[in-house]
């Protein structure tokens, strides 16, 4: 299974890196518009995103829009000691973020408030290398987001008497959508997959 996952990773990353800067920006802006139009996002008060790197979907425009809309915006920071993601609220993309582990931009702890209550999160945009239409997600292999999502138990979260767990979504270029992704017991599927071509409601997602 791990060999299959690695083959998919290498293929998708290679294809993604062939995008020109102009095309990458164009597709990212289209995807951002789709996120902003998603009802689940519009209703969210607190959103968890990530700072993109390399040839990933560019998240900065979406994050800026979320801040301007008055949403509480959280970003992850890797705790090297615990190998866990810690969440911090940011107010300014220029002042509150700096290159961190693996040179990926992360929130600055001395400027940002750490948020430990995951029940506050309404909407999560997850990074990933590849996705299937049923919501299966293939990450980079570190397992950081699997550990984070394992700390969120939708069955126990109830702010209004209903299943009110954070909505899990992903933004990706159409080339990142594959037919099938091998899944393990710890893997979580996304509910929404947004590409430049379509908005996919992943029916098999929890």
Biggest β-sheet: strands ordered side by side in the sheet? 6-3-2-1-7-10-12-13
**Residues in helix, %:** 25-40%
N- to C-terminal separation?
22 Å
What structural class is derived from the secondary structure elements? alpha/beta
Specify the number of helices. 5
Would you report the number of β strands? Answer: 13
| Net shape | globular
**Measured on Cα atoms, how large is the radius of gyration?**
16 Å
Hey, roughly how much beta strand do the residues contain?
Answer: 15-25%
The appropriate CATH architecture is 3-Layer(aba) Sandwich
Major beta sheet summary? 8 strands, mixed
CATH superfamily: NagB/RpiA/CoA transferase-like
For the residues shown, what is the average pLDDT? 88
How many separate domains?
1
Give the low-confidence spans.
154-162
CATH fold title: Rossmann fold
Describe it.
The protein is 25% helix and 24% strand. It has one domain: Rossmann fold. The chain has helices at residues 2-16, 21-37, 39-42, 60-68, 144-150, and strands at 46-48, 72-79, 84-90, 97-99, 105-107, 113-115, 123-126, 130-132, 137-138, 167-171, 177-178, 192-194, 199-201. The protein contains 5 helices and 13 strands. The chain starts with a helix and ends in a 5-residue tail after the last strand.
């Amino acid at each position: 299974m791990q060999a299959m996952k690695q083959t998919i990773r290498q293929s998708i990353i290679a294809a993604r890196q062939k995008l020109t800067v102009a095309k990458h920006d164009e597709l990212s802006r289209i995807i951002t518009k789709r996120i902003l139009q998603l009802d689940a996002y519009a209703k969210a008060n607190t959103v968890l995103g990530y700072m993109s790197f390399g040839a990933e979907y560019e998240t900065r425009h979406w994050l800026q829009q979320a801040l301007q809309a008055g949403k509480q915006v959280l970003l992850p920071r890797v705790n090297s000691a615990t190998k866990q993601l810690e969440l911090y609220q940011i107010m300014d993309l220029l002042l509150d973020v700096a290159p961190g582990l693996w040179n990926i931009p992360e929130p600055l702890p001395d400027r940002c408030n750490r948020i430990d209550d995951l029940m506050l999160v309404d909407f999560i945009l997850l990074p990933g290398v590849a996705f299937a239409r049923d919501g299966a997600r293939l990450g980079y292999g570190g397992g950081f987001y699997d550990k984070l999502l394992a700390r969120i138990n939708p069955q126990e979260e109830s702010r209004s008497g209903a299943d009110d767990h954070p909505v899990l979504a992903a933004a990706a270029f159409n080339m990142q959508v594959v037919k099938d992704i091998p899944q393990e017991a710890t893997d979580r599927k996304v509910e929404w997959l947004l590409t430049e071509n379509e908005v996919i409601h992943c029916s098999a997602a929890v």
